[in-house]
Design brief:
This protein is an alpha/beta fold and 377 residues long. The chain contains 14 helices and eight strands. The chain folds into two domains: 1-59, no CATH class; 113-376, TIM Barrel, CATH 3.20.20. It is globular and about 85 Å long. The structure holds iron/sulfur cluster.
Length: 377
């Protein structure tokens, strides 16, 4: 009888070896060398060794538990991995600031189901975008790539064949996310949503959008699918908003926001408001709280590191202290305004949302801005 050949692969080791040396980036600038190299390694091994079975072994939760039982100093003193390419290894704090972990952590919540399928899918299918926001780049905005970077269009890799391939995965999903450019502009996003409405209509679909596109396709998506929305708004006056979000229009945003708000209200939801506090809008952060409270929305602050001339964290310490003093005043004003709601018969869930939004502003003022001041001492 012919003996079977089984190849056993240390999954994490193979992934890391590739991640360290492979500088590949996705079309939107995310490092994908680990995954790409990992798959190439598997292909090479299969080609050369022609195994009957290929077994990939991953560390379980906690990693190397058995070895640590034998030797509690296992891997003690090992140096952190160094990338053999021109990408800076981020410290743990930088990772958190860069939202690597918060994004990755979503996959702890949405694991692989009992059939071996992923339950969360995040798609960034194209950089086609109607705006050229000051803090964005050409990987995310086709307009910036063309007009600011003077570079040719990025190729579109996704077509009907890709939509067809998704049919296998959609029934297993618990959440589907569409990110930028502007996903409501992408015809393929509409096709995927229609497919979802046929085969898994209860699937929650999250859109990261600038809120400026509302047309027949968007209307159909809203009517047929279970949608959530994160709408990016970086200014709360026409002047500030339009200066930052180049090519935008404040009146259109307000009109569309109300339309989206009404759709989501039917599902007892509201759009979330995403804000990037920067040098050119920090004084309107209190208005972000008021806006989110008015529409019973959740407010989220991002941290801007790039471009550095718009970031707050690298301002001279005296400027940061002035900003902090003004923001503290704004915080007191917001807390004062909120007293009316705490002493009236405000529904509990609305009051909690208001408190949460003020709490986020408080964290921004007392933790983040104070942290930057302390770092610059
Ligand atoms: S809307 Fe989003 S993707 Fe488009 S330019 Fe602005 S930040 Fe970039």
């Amino acid at each position: 009888m012919k003996k079977k050949r089984i190849v056993i692969i240390d999954g994490l080791n193979t992934y890391l070896r590739n991640y360290i040396v492979n500088p590949s980036l996705s079309t939107n600038g995310n490092p994908i060398g680990g995954l790409k190299g990992f798959l190439s390694s598997l292909q090479k091994l299969s080609r050369e060794l022609k195994p009957d079975h290929l077994v990939i072994v991953w560390d379980g939760p906690g990693g190397s538990q058995r070895r640590k039982t034998v030797n509690k100093n296992y891997k003690e003193g090992r140096k952190p991995i160094r990338l053999n390419r021109s990408v800076k290894l981020l410290s743990e704090e930088e990772n958190i600031k860069n939202k690597v972990w918060p994004l990755a952590m979503a996959y702890d919540r949405f694991g692989v189901n009992e059939n071996g399928y992923p339950t969360l899918l995040e798609l960034e299918l194209s950089n086609e975008c109607n705006l050229e926001c000051l803090m964005c780049d050409g990987f995310l905005s086709s307009g910036i790539r063309k007009n600011r970077d003077k570079l040719p269009k990025l190729p579109m890799h996704y077509n009907d064949n890709f939509v067809e391939q998704l049919k296998e995965y959609i029934p297993h999903l618990e959440e589907l996310r569409f990110n930028g450019g502007e996903p409501f502009l992408h015809k393929i996003v509409h096709k995927i949503c229609m497919l979802v409405s046929e085969i898994n209509p209860k699937l929650q679909i999250n859109f990261a959008t600038n809120g400026l596109i509302y047309n027949k396709r968007v209307k159909e998506i809203l009517e047929k699918c279970d949608i959530r929305m994160n709408i990016s708004i970086d200014g709360f006056t026409k002047e500030t908003y339009e200066k930052i979000r180049v090519n935008s229009d404040w009146e259109t945003l307000m009109k569309n926001f109300k339309i989206f708000w009404k759709y989501l209200l039917k599902k007892n939801q509201a759009p979330s408001v995403m804000v990037n506090p920067m040098r050119n809008n920090w004084w309107e952060m209190k208005d972000a709280v008021r806006f989110a409270n008015k529409y019973k929305s959740n407010l989220w602050y991002n941290t801007v590191h790039h471009p550095s001339h718009l970031a707050l964290h690298n301002l001279p310490i005296e400027e940061l202290k002035d900003i902090h003093r003004q923001l503290k005043k704004d915080l007191r004003e917001l807390e004062e305004e909120n007293k009316y709601y705490t002493s009236s018969n405000t529904p509990r869930d609305y009051l909690e949302k208001r408190m949460a939004n003020i709490g986020k502003f408080k964290m921004f003022v007392n933790n983040q801005v104070v942290g930057w001041i302390n770092e610059s001492r």
